Amino acid sequence: MSGKQDKPEKKATPPADNPRKRFEQWEELEQDQAQEQALRRLKAIEEEKKKNVK
Prior knowledge:
The protein has one helix spanning 19-53. By secondary structure, it is mainly α.
């Protein structure tokens, strides 16, 4: 195993051997993305509040 393969980190490619497991992983990934978006929205709202206070 001398040749290193370039693998992008955290690539969203669940194993295809188990459809059920694959679905669960995709669901997890979508939840993570939704959570990230919600956090970004919260931060943006807080920034707006700070601007309005001044």
